[in-house]
Amino acid sequence: MHSSRALNIWRRLVLSGVLCVLICDINRVTAAVFKSPNSDDAAFWHRHAENNLKKILSYDTHRRGAGVAKNVIIFVGDGMGVSSLSTGRIFKGQQAGRSGEEETLSFDHFPNTGFSKTYNTDRQVPDSAGTATAMFSGIKTKSGVIGVDFTVTETTEEAASVSNIMDWAQAVGKRTGIVTTTRITHATPAAAYAHSFNRNWECEVKIPTNLRNRTKDIARQLVENAPGNKFNVILGGGRSEFGVPIPEHSKEQLKINGSMDKPCQRADGRDLVKTWLESKNDSSAAYVWNTSQLLDAEVDDLEYLLGLFADEHMSYETIRDKTSGGEPSLSDMTEKAIRVLKRKDSKGFVLMVEGGRIDHGHHQNIPRLALAEVVELDRAVERALGMVDLDETLIIVTADHSHVLTFNGYPDRGNDILGFGNRPDKLPYETITYANGPGFRTHRANDSSDEPKRYDTWVPVETMDRSAIEYRHISTFPLDDETHGGEDVAVFAAGPGSALVRGTFEQNYIAYVMSYAGCMGPARKLNEGCSRHWWSSSGAASGSGVLGQLLISIVSVAFAKLCHTL
Fold first, then answer.
1. pTM for the model
2. Are 139 and 509 spatial neighbours (Cβ–Cβ below 8 Å)?
3. What parts of the chain have a pLDDT lower than 70?
4. Catalytic choice (84, 106, 116, 128)
5. I want to staple 218 with a disulfide (CB 3.0 to 4.6 A). Which of 185, 269, 399, 552 is the partner?
6. CA quadruple 547, 552, 553, 559: dihedral positive or negative?
7. What's the CA gap between 192 and 208, in Å, rounded?
8. In 55-106, which ranges are E strands?
9. What is the rounded CA–CA span in Å between residue 323 and residue 522?
10. Where are the alpha helices (DSSP H) in 96-200?
11. Catalytic residue status for 99
């Protein structure tokens, strides 16, 4: 009797133990952090991009090596997803007095297109730091990370840093530059020169005190470290991050910034513009801070041009001061940059141009501002097309990520793209809406509202002043800033090497297209045509140096991982 009872108790204990193990295992699984099926380190992503390049090259073996670009220009519409392209195209036409649907953007005519997958290694929906690093460096990394392989932990940026298109270009003797409407230290432009575990470290006050002796802020990296300190052109906003006193007679512009747009004011007393000028020690270097100074700058004898046109981000195109003492347009900055970079006997140039405030307009649910920025980016591309020879210049136009903008309803042909998505005899709603953002509260009626029953707790959209610059379109979930979207983004390409842009590919592949076509960096070795051009053949040794640097970087990463394991 006692032994039978003891056996039953034992069986219950064993069964309970099994159940406990199962439950514990389930809890472990549900609580576990996602583990990527890939190593996600720099070596993996470089290998992945090279394999994709080889696959696409195999489609046209008779043309292998034919795509050789002396110059490379990449235009990044920050946040310019497919919905922004469609609505921006219509907005462009309607601003010119046409119905809009039949309108075209300058890059709609490019012969080659594809789609890039924008996720970060830790996020389905990405941020601009990780995506820009992918496009410029050829590796994917974590959200918020600039120019580093984040699989290397508990180390310095120097140990984990990865080279990019600007390093590759300078190694083979090309001139380089960046243009943006954001702060020059913001995520997208910063990915062209900086290495930082945190995109917010734009000036020293944002870096934790215990780390300031181990890393430089992004502004200092631009002025003091390669490749930034070798840029021939730097144009954008961000005087505060450089510690520059506000210029006399500068005009304060209307600011519509959300909680994500936080300035970074230097407190260390450094004037980095002065440092930049002193480092050039050359009369061929110039600093400008308004439109007239930019346009008047003599480019024939100008080797280096730095322009900072706003204390923080530059003003939206819709509301910027267009006088000579105000801020230049993106198209004006693009033209000046190309004029400085083009030299008759040079080995070419690489230029990154960002329409950065498309993103900010969407974050605030204000498509009126965002779509005007799309149109201005289109003007910048058109301006560039008129200045370069597509027989020797590769131009890529793309976005880093999308937004949660929806283009919806059944509006009539030619209907105002900022108007209503249905007929006037129906309950009106907007053609452009957002899945989330501050527009939710704009349209929310307060508790004492005496609005018609059919609207419940929402303000009737047709009663609102929708023509105001600050007017926000409705969103379905309240956030201080609207979020990015995670779908693929379009990539447009023209010029030598543009045929490599086809199908759907990982975003880091874009860097390999530029590397291959531009005869620079890790993909140079695959382009047989590089040896047949005077401006690239002499850079063979430098190209090998870049590959050597890449190998050293990969070995350093492996060694750091080994040390961390031990």
1. 0.87
2. no
3. 1-33, 61-66, 153-159, 248-261, 447-455, 537-566
4. 128
5. 185
6. positive
7. 23
8. 71-77
9. 45
10. 128-137, 157-160, 165-171, 187-190
11. no
